[in-house]
UniProtKB/TrEMBL annotation:
The gene is ubiX. Belongs to the UbiX/PAD1 family. This is Flavin prenyltransferase UbiX. The lineage of its organism: Bacteria, Pseudomonadati, Pseudomonadota, Gammaproteobacteria, Vibrionales. It comes from Paraphotobacterium marinum. Keywords: Flavoprotein, FMN, Prenyltransferase, Transferase. GO terms for molecular function: carboxy-lyase activity; flavin prenyltransferase activity.
């Protein structure tokens, strides 16, 4: 699984996704943008090294010669969590100016699952149009939303639930995921 972390708010969610994938023994190919690294510093008590230790392999987000920038790289899909509006825009117009947007471009052309955990509020018309355009191409647009049917007691409960739902998009199930129950 390819995972990109960009500079939008949501670093704790990115860590939770990495943690769950790691626990499930999924091979993780990780890239963190410059601003993604800065957001990790601001939003968590973890270091970039802590995030990197959960990955099978880590790439410099400026290294467009990395193996994940090629359609010949075998992967089951890609998650960008969080996905900034800058990255969303770049993917939407095919402006593959870094390894994260180039990898997403390759995922699109190879018709593999791409999940963008978009982070912005409120959304402008430009954001919505870019999301709609990518959704029509088969991209899963996944703004992390709070849920209450699972009766969260902590922020970690909410983060874990959202991470489980993100992984659902790839057919990756976790036994701790709480599902809607209408009693």
């Amino acid at each position: 699984m390819i995972v990109g972390i960009t500079g939008a708010t949501g670093a704790p969610l990115a860590y939770k996704v990495l943690e769950i994938l790691n626990d499930l023994n999924v091979n993780i190919h990780l890239m963190v943008s410059k601003w993604g690294a800065r957001t990790i510093e601001i939003e968590t008590d973890k270091t970039l090294k802590d995030f990197s230790e959960l990955a099978t392999r880590v790439y410099n987000s400026r290294d467009q010669a990395a193996c994940i920038s090629s359609g010949s790289f075998r992967t089951d899909g890609m998650i960008i969590v969080p996905c900034s509006m800058k990255t969303l825009s770049s993917i939407s117009v095919g402006f593959a100016d870094n390894l994260i947007s180039r990898s997403a471009d390759v995922i699109l052309k190879e018709q593999k699952p791409l999940i963008l955990v978009t982070r912005e509020t409120p959304l402008s018309q430009i954001h919505l149009e870019n999301m709609l355009k990518l959704s029509r191409m088969g991209v899963s647009i996944f703004p992390p939303m709070l849920t209450f049917y699972n009766h969260p007691k902590t922020i970690d409960d909410m983060t874990a639930h959202t991470a489980y739902r993100i992984l659902d998009q790839l057919g990756i199930e976790h036994p701790d995921a709480k599902r809607w129950k209408n009693n």
